[in-house]
Amino acid sequence: MKRIIHSISVTIALSIMLLNCDDNNDLDLNIVVTKVDPTCQICNDGSIQLTISGGKSPYSVSWSNGAVTEKLDSLSVGTYTYTVKDDKNQEVTGNVVLNFYHELVAIETDFGNILIWLYDQTPLHKANFLKLTKDGFYDGLIFHRVIDEFMIQGGDPDGTGSGGPGYKIDAEITGSIKHDLGAVGAARDNNPQKQSNGSQFYIVENKNGAHHLDGNYTVFGIVVDGIDAVHDIGSVPTNAADRPLNDVVMKSIKIESYTAGELKTQFDFIIP
Questions:
Q1: Which contiguous run of DSSP H or E holds residue 123?
Q2: Is residue 19 predicted with pLDDT exceeding 70?
Q3: Superfamily of domain 102-267
Q4: E-strand stretches of the chain
Q5: According to the model, what pLDDT value does residue 26 have?
Q6: What does the domain layout of the chain look like in residue ranges?
Q7: CATH class of the region 9-98
Q8: Which end of the chain is more exposed for a tag (fewer CB within 10 A), N or C?
Q9: Taking residues 150-167, what's their average pLDDT?
Q10: Taking the complete model, does pTM exceed 0.90, yes or no?
Q11: What's the first-to-final CA gap in the chain, in angstroms?
């Protein structure tokens, strides 16, 4: 199941009814956990706040990381276990999981959806692709160039192969990221700096890759899910200019967010 996260601030309420040792009284020990997830996989800017009520004060708090306060700051991704005790030695234990949600791009087509991971190693291209996606730039554009057993190309607002957003992106070519099956690369003209077109991209459709392009074009993503849709688009009839006879439309492109665990469980994808 796809999970779209719109906020990194989540509140979890835990209400636990405990029986007092005194047979004549019932105690409600209530704990509200508020967490803020870290803003990146290796960031230490997450936090957890416990709000305790009920039971019999004073309360004592202990955490799996050794802390004894109700609020924890400067936290990274991970699981934090707390134990709260009241003055009657009643005890509540719970876990708080801090996650980082990675932004992926999902392309909706009539042939199926294509989910794309964007590499951190190409930060200019990643930021640009995310911005254009969030701005709705790609919605309704077509794959204007399709070559079976090679690649599919789109992202031109003119639909001709010569258009773009009016700017180029400096090359971010790295030897560790190659034109394997499902690689997402930035199209460009024949400029000596190998700068990328600001919006046009292609997806490698050949099962053996397109390694003759390695070192000449920036690869900034990889298909995580939906490679069958890429193959189906690659097999549509085209004219002599490699344009599909019937438009292959990107009906929408949107951001979908996943944790590392969700990517592994749902798509068997391990973050590179």
A1: helix 123-134
A2: no
A3: Cyclophilin-like (2.40.100.10)
A4: 9-19, 26-36, 46-54, 60-63, 71-75, 78-85, 91-98, 102-109, 112-118, 143-147, 151-154, 168-169, 183-186, 196-197, 201-204, 219-225, 252-258
A5: 59
A6: 9-98, 102-267
A7: mainly beta
A8: N
A9: 97
A10: no
A11: 22
